[in-house]
Amino acid sequence: MAAIDLRSDTVAMPSPEMRRAMVEAPLGDDVFGDDPTANRLMEVAADRMGKAAATFVPSGTMGNLIGIAVNARSGEELIADADSHAFYYETAGAAAVCGVQIRPVATEAGVMSAEQLLDAVRPRDDPHQPLTAAVTFENTHNRHGGIVWPLEALRSAGDAAHAQGLRVHLDGARIFNAAVALGVPASEIAACADTVTFCLSKGLACPVGSIFCGSEEAIEEAKRWRKRLGGGMRQVGVLAAAGLIALDHMVDRLAEDHANARTLAEALSELPGVSCDLARVQTNLVYFDLDSMPAPAFTDECAKRGLLSDWIGPRRMRFVTHYGIDTEDVQSALKICEEVLSA
Questions:
Q1: Would you say residue 2 lies in a domain?
Q2: Nearest 10 degrees: CA dihedral of 48, 50, 55, 61?
Q3: 209 to each of 57, 62, 173, how far by Cα in Å?
Q4: Residue 182 pairs with which residues in a beta bridge?
Q5: For residue 1, what pLDDT band results from cuts at 50, 70 and 90?
């Protein structure tokens, strides 16, 4: 019996339609700009984000790093949420590769207010401090539970940044989850930003890749950075073909993942020794805390019973729903959790 894998939506397998498209895709050399399938994906992706152009990158981490490199220069500073992916999970790439310092701002739920942003902007007349060049927002926000920025809050923060002459990069790894949760096109969310990255390999269930979108000028610079970082690949159409299927067929179905996550969260919150903030379960991520046993031990016991999960703190767990996890899997996962907690 196959394990129920709730470690991440990155473990989702490509659909049969994706696999067929990958085999049959017309190919060229993407570095030379003549891969027809990759070019088509870039057109579709840019349109979905409301941007002029796009480029394929191997990962969301590279996309965010390019977003920092394009929007800030060595010796400058980028404002980011203190729990953001760019600050927390990207191995100090901004500093090590771009020479850009990140200024972390603690927020209550991953939503940075205009006031918080303005307070973090450095005074331009003080030679002791770095110049603030840009800000990055994360939507949905991973470490805050997959929460979705309210559109007005996002617009307010973006407007405040632009009014200060800052550029805005949106880490939209799961932007389509946000769009489905809000019931709006992804372009309405991306409108706050100059550049945006979104992942094909998370909720959209593609095997590899992310897309970086922005102006024509930003994409030209992004391609130079992509090459510098080793991300200039060749017959990318093999991967882009899956992305085209995903954008056509995998976005609306994200609502199923959200419903499954909600079912998980509500049932988990009723188990003894479990605390779950249901207000933060807005998309496909479920964070919960264990009062009765350490998270590593819980993870190990669940794995013995066929449930794979991710512990992210001594007592903190994360479950992620995705393509390939159905309602029966959710109920089976809950039974395993109940059994482990009552053992």
A1: no
A2: -80
A3: 6, 10, 11
A4: none
A5: low
Whether 217 and 126 map to the same domain: the answer is yes
Range of 281's domain?
253-342
Rounded Cα distance, 82 and 65, in Å: 17
At 14, list the tokens: 């490509």
Q: Are residues 221 and 77 in the same domain?
A: yes
Same structural domain for residues 58 and 167? yes
Contact 8, 310 (CB under 8 A): yes
230, with CB counted inside 10 A (0-12, 13-18, 19+), is exposed
pTM, rounded to two decimals: 0.96
b (16+ CB within 10 A) / e for 257-293: bbebbbbbbebbeebeebebbeebbbbbbbbbebeee
Nearest to 234 by CA among 41, 34, 45: 34
The predicted-structure confidence for 221-257, as pLDDT tens digits, reads as follows: 999 999 999 999 999 999 999 999 999 999 999 999 9
In a domain, 102, yes or no: yes
For the stretch 58-77, pLDDT in tens is 999 999 999 999 999 999 99
